[in-house]
Design brief:
By secondary structure, the protein is α/β, with parallel strands linked by helices. An 8-stranded parallel barrel has the order 1-2-4-5-6-7-8-9, surrounded by 4 helices. Strand 5, helix 7 and strand 6 form a beta-alpha-beta unit. The radius of gyration is 19 Å and the shape is globular. Bound molecules: SN-glycerol-3-phosphate and calcium ion.
Length: 303
Amino acid sequence: MHRPSVNWGRHSARRYSFRRSAASFTATLALVAVLAIDHTAATVYAAQPLGSMVLNDGVPLTIAHRGAPAEAPENTIPAFEAALASGAEVLELDLRMTADEQVVVFHDELLDRTTDGSGPIADRTLAELRVLDAGSWYGSAWQGTSIPTFDEVLPLLQRSDVRALIELKGLWTVDALRPIIAGIYRHGVQDRVVLASFELPTLLELWREAPSLPRAVIVRRLPDDPVDFAASVGATTVVTSLRSFRVDPDAAEMLQNAGLTVIVYTLNRADLWQQAVDLGVDGVVTDAPRRLASVHAEAVRGS
Ligand code: G3P
Ligand code: CA
């Protein structure tokens, strides 16, 4: 199969930069208007940690999906360390709650695929999870790797300058969200994180409980009016599939003109990365952050 080479030349970068400048100007006007009429609404637009990280050279952020699963078992400390070393600007990770209400970093509802345990993770206490092996399924070199708690990953964020897209899997009550919010502030990373979810009730709970923490809505297919959709849950970032933009090629620009950050997930091939760049999105979620970051660096050098 023929795949076009990745060649993000000057034209692409300039078009992108111009679009971002115009979008920033529009977003600033919108912010001034919002500030003038509604303080509560203004908090929605107060911080855009992913958007503000858009590289001047016109390439999207590299967002390391579950760490760097091309290099280490997903959502584990080795995967996050590999992601930090890869040059990715953003770590993506998934949070779930244990039976004794501890917050752990884990993707699936079930333990079966990525550990030597089985059944729903939500039925196990943290002590029960601690003895599971979350590395051997990936390779013998990772035998004995455990499921990390959120509190164990926060210091990693704290001692680097990386940003984080923190996804809340499933539905969360305000009580369950409080330790997550507290941990973010305790580690002083509140200006570098975005809390994300597919679940609209969870985003609304977050909005009520921690309005200053930016939120991202994740949606497989964009609805007809994505700007209103994002606003309805107080999201400043929209995470969606590339397919959403095949259906509606103007949607990315429409969202950005409204001041929203646009992220696509999860792309692992150079031809798809190029499509994302051509769309002018702000970030690309990938399992192979080292490869994407080096392709980006190459594109910047060549522009
Ligand atoms: O960043 C969005 C993406 O992580 C959502 O999909 O299933 O990999 O968590 P999933
Ligand atoms: Ca995720």
